[in-house]
Amino acid sequence: MSKPRIINIISNRNFESKKTSLELNEKLTDRGFIVKDKYDYNAELNICVGGDGSFLRAVHKNRFPKIPFVGINTGHLGFFQEILPENIDDFINKYINKEYMVEEILLVDAEVCAKEKCYYLSGVNEIVVKGSRSKVIHLDVSIDGNHLENFCGDGMIISTPSGSTAYNFSVGGSIIYPSMNTLQVTPLAPISSKAYRSLLNSVVVPGDSIIKLKLENRYTNSTLIVNDGVEFKYDNIDHINFKISDKKIYKLNFNKDMYWSNLRSKFL
To answer: Residues near 168 by Cβ (< 8 Å), separated by ≥ 6?
Structure first.
């Protein structure tokens, strides 16, 4: 007997998303696929219906699965969600005929070290360090043990290439092509004056670098860590190390020029 072809459909609760998911379920079932009611780690594909927020939640909720993703966009921007609902039939045909490429998406890891223990986070787009309740924060920033700056401002974004078009882009960071093995350090409202000298622009670092943010003592209990939009609060933080994760996620690409088309249509 042939192996059952299982597909996960992951949808948000938006009316348009639920409608699209029902249509998708029927069409996939008609073509011989099995769509389970609950997430199945034996599936061959994850189809995420919604916007980029839905995609990020699906990745985190299911613990960064190795099963590749593809997105159907019923949201607004939809940078990860490249298929429109009206193109579902074309998508299914191309998938069955294997007319696609599988892309790796790099993740960022953070090791948040408090006085008594360390905590570990992984992000798809970015991990942000900022002052709680809109406080200014002071950070000692170093790359591979080399002191870079004593930062003062609202915070710092550490973004992946895929995340370079998200929060990073909105605060003036550079756009990095997704396949490049880099991380980007982008300041949030840096203060550069006679009292404080902070870099005003982002810094792109090689993928094997370790980025370290050390907090001044007075900020150890007034710092927020924001991972792909979700806030985490830890007491007595001493420092945070960032690096490219050993984990990866995977996404289907049906058009090698889709990235540039997306960039043009979303931002210009």
So the answer is: 125, 126, 157, 159, 174, 184, 186, 202
| Residue 102 reports pLDDT greater than 90 | yes
- Report phi then psi at 117, rounded to 5: -160, 170
Instruction: Please identify which of the residues 30, 40, 52, 154 carries the catalytic annotation.
Output: 52
Say if residue 117's pLDDT is above 90: yes
- The domain 107-246 having CATH identifier 2.60.200.30: the answer here is yes
Asked if residue 2 has pLDDT above 80, the reply is: no
Is 238 tagged catalytic?
A: no
Angstrom distance (rounded) from CA 78 to CA 93: 22
Q: Which two tokens stand for residue 141?
A: 């920033």
Q: CA 135, CA 129: separation in Å to the nearest integer?
A: 12
Cite the DSSP H helix spans in the chain.
Answer: 15-30, 52-61, 88-96, 167-170, 258-267
Angle at 92 between CA 89 and CA 95, to 5 degrees: 150
- Residue 99 vs residues 91, 254, 262: alpha-carbon distances, Å: 9, 7, 19
Task: State the alpha helices, DSSP H only, in 79-166.
Answer: 88-96
Are 44 and 16 in contact by the 8 Å Cβ rule? The answer is no
Domains 6-99 and 107-246 equal at CATH topology level: no
Domain 6-99 has CATH 3.10.310.10: no
- DSSP letter at 83 equals B
What local confidence, expressed as pLDDT, does residue 190 receive?
95
Rounded distance, CA 27 to CA 25, Å? 6
Please state, in angstroms and as integers, the Cα–Cα distance from residue 83 to each residue in 60, 69, 78, following that order.
21, 12, 9
